[in-house]
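hey so i finally got around to running both of the ones u sent me last week. sorry it took forever, my laptop kept dying halfway thru and i had to restart like 3 times lol. anyway pasting them below in the order u listed, first the sequence line then the structure token line for each. didnt double check formatting much so if smth looks off just lmk and ill redo it

first one:
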Amino acid sequence: APPDALALGYAWMSMGLFRLRLGEPAQAVEDLREALRVLQHSGSREPWALVYAALAVSLRGVADVRERRRCAFEGQQLLQSQRRWGEAANLTLELIEIALAESALDQARLLLQEARHLCAELPAAAPVRCAVQLANSSVLFAEGRHQAAIALAQEWLEAAKPHIASVDEAYFLERLAHRCGTALRQALVMGG
């Protein structure tokens, strides 16, 4: 691959990641799409496919679910073909989130099994293993098994704390609180 193409692609990717951290997802999406376009045409098999994960996260607030799913699935397939199991598992987790948001519980369960299978290829200390545990908690919530979900999420948080930034911890706690609130509202509606 021409070194200029790789450098340009990585520059766009860095700018997209920077904008995502700044809380500018729409601009991050533009930069990451450009990075993906440049890097796809570079012919390189370097780990640039990670741009799919950043793009999938950036798309959460600015794109429809079909585009998010397409991006996550395309990246997951490419990463699997490159035998990058951890990154592929990470994008599988994004697909689980999408399935749960669409109330596609059976699909979420299948994707959770796939994520576990991908993690079997990884060292025991791989950070994505903790994320799979959190996804399992999300599936338990969707199944109505709230106490088990909370216990698993607490276990996850204790295991993950040394490995995640405080901003990420806050994000995951907010997601857990949202799921608890949603479960409570559903229970109130069904109960009365």
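and the second one:
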Amino acid sequence: LWCRLSFDMGQLWDVFSQRSKAALLSIEGSEETAELIPAPSRITSLLEHRHRIRELRLPRVTWPDLKIFFDGLINPLHYLSVLSIICTSGSGQLPDLPDGFISHMLPNLEELTLAGVEFPTNSSSSRLRYFRYSDLSERPSTLTVQGIMDTLRQMPSLDQFSLVLKKPAPKQRATDRHNKVSLLYLKELYLS
């Protein structure tokens, strides 16, 4: 009961986080909330409890708040297995995740959903089973087939992959026909 925190729970956030003691936490935002969340004070609280977060869902986070979170991470989040980031950057340019963020900071990540940030080219987790990426910006994507291949190559355990691009990149020419990716466990593939 005390292990499920939500950004829109007001004063109960502090009560639940204290009563959960050392238990692993599931933290999520609310998509129905009118204002963008989490507030900077919640980001600070996230960082205080980072060593025991198991699931983190940020459905409406601004890039400045997300950057505060990234900058506050010092050590890997060993217990984090589920991460969902839907960033509302507000500009035409999608923000980048920090270099090596997934591979170095999230060693046990199994489920990843990203939207509103650049595709994590050449950075992944070998334990990742579920990966959903959406680029819904109005500008054409800068994502390349090679970038996707390089990333998928680092996801041998992947069984679900979803790639949604509102405006795909212009047609690209394959650079190497022998550039293969082996995804032995892949059961679901969605491309749009």
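quick thing i noticed on the 2nd:
The chain has a mean pLDDT of 82.
anyway thats it, ttyl
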